[in-house]
Amino acid sequence: MLNRLLSLIVKATNITPSYTPEHCLVVTKAVGGCTVCEETCPHQAITIGRAVEIDEIDCTGCGLCVQACPSQALSSSVAYSRGAPLKCSQVKGDAQSVQCLTRLQPSDVLALAGRKDRVTLVRGACEGCAIGSPEVPARLAQLLQDAAALAAVRGRTLHTEVLVRERYDTTDNPETLSRRELLRGGLRSSKRFSADLLAPLEALGEAQAEEKGVPLELEKRFLLLRAAQPEAEARVPWTLPRVHDGCIMCPVCTNVCPTGAFKRELSPVQMGGGGVLKLEPERCNGCNACVTSCPVRVITLDGEVTWGELSGGTQEVYRKAGGALTGSVARR
Predict the structure, then answer these.
(1) Terminal Cα-to-Cα distance of the chain (whole angstroms)
(2) Is 273 inside any structural domain?
(3) Residue 158, in any domain of the structure
(4) Residue 222 falls inside a structural domain
(5) Is residue 80 part of a domain?
(6) pLDDT per position as a tens digit, 277-288
(7) Residues ≥6 apart with Cβ < 8 Å to 115
(8) pLDDT at 180
(9) E strand or H helix at 145, and its extent?
(10) What pLDDT is attached to residue 172?
(11) What integer pLDDT is reported at residue 184 of this predicted model?
(12) Fewest beta carbons within 10 Å, which of 19, 105, 187, 325?
């Protein structure tokens, strides 16, 4: 009992991921459910019942579950100074650090890179790590790849360096920052991070109360792409569902979608029945719930998405008119 109490005191900084139930495929009852976070956690800190439960004592805050979650129901906050190297907590030294590098998201990597488009991340030996697991290097590689794809749309080449060290100090950085400058930068970064958190939430607050919100990281990625002002025909790193012939206009995809990307509008019987299935592309996080849950298996995911399609607002993806089924899979 005493050990558990001491553990709670030590973990008072609340390093556990934030959980948004309405974004969770378990809560939305997607066919097959989802156990990815539970299977990914290297410390058995996650259990799944009607929702995801995270043990605040067993959780080490590594962020691996956040990286693995297909619907972005889990998220981690990270404060950092832009333009400075970032090390994991297992590496000694006075350089700025984070519990584990897999707490980062692609938008964090771009923010770290700053105007110089250069990121240096320093990790320890992941084998036998008490915080993360041997999977960290692979997850980190995918994270940097996703960040590079976002940077490419903005016409930037992201230069990333991952070092394995036992110790890393601010003086190890060729462009040395003093301890005071680093702390000042960290405080400014924390304020910017808070502002980043509030802005999308305020925008979402203007939406109708019954609408499901959009995960913060998804919104950040969309804003990063919009800021790049790509050509309409330019391909962007996004995934969207395609609805093919055979759709029966049932409510399954709209019910299981964790972000409310799908909308269904049915016509009265006296008007011949039928209806329209619509999609808000920027709300889709590619979680695959609609694909696995569709009872007639007519939905697939497509990674070939253009900026014009993503930014073009609500689009009609399927129409059932007068009893006839009409697919609307053409890309904009």
Answers:
(1) 61
(2) yes
(3) yes
(4) no
(5) no
(6) 999 999 999 999
(7) 83
(8) 52
(9) helix 136-153
(10) 80
(11) 54
(12) 187
